[in-house]
Amino acid sequence: PYVDVVTDMSTKKVVKKTKTIKGTVNPVWRERCEITLNPSSDKITFYMWDWEAIGKHKPLGEYSLRVDVL
């Protein structure tokens, strides 16, 4: 699996993508990154994907975090 990080929901542009961790259903990412937010950004959304060698990657879920609670 891997995670895409999106801060602008109008464009859904990925600002960070984690490394893909293969061979596990319980991945742990120990990655850090700095993200510059637009003043209009009100949340950060994390999209989790199951990496597939053939065909489309499958969505596993998503989580949104409000910026005002950071």
Describe this structure in words.
The chain has strands at 2-6, 14-17, 43-50, 58-66. The chain has no helices and 4 strands. By secondary structure, the chain is mainly β. The mean pLDDT is 91.
- What average pLDDT do the residues reach? 91
Report the C-alpha radius of gyration, rounded. 13 Å
**What percent strand?**
35-45%
Q: From N to C, what is the helix and strand string?
A: EEEE
Alpha carbon gap, first and last residue: 26 Å
Largest sheet descriptor = 4 strands, antiparallel
Number of strands: 4
Q: What would you call the shape?
A: globular
Strands in their spatial order, largest beta sheet: 2-1-3-4
- Counting copies of identical and different chains, the oligomeric state is single chain
How many helical elements?
0
Low-confidence stretches: none
Global structural class: mainly beta
- Classify the helix fraction into a percent range: under 10%
Summarize the structure.
Helices cover 0% and strands 37% of the residues. The protein has 70 residues and is an all-beta fold.
Features:
70 residues, mainly beta, 4-stranded antiparallel beta sheet, 37% strand
How is the topology of this model organized?
Layout: E1 2-6, E2 14-17, E3 43-50, E4 58-66
Antiparallel strand pairs: 1-2, 1-3, 3-4
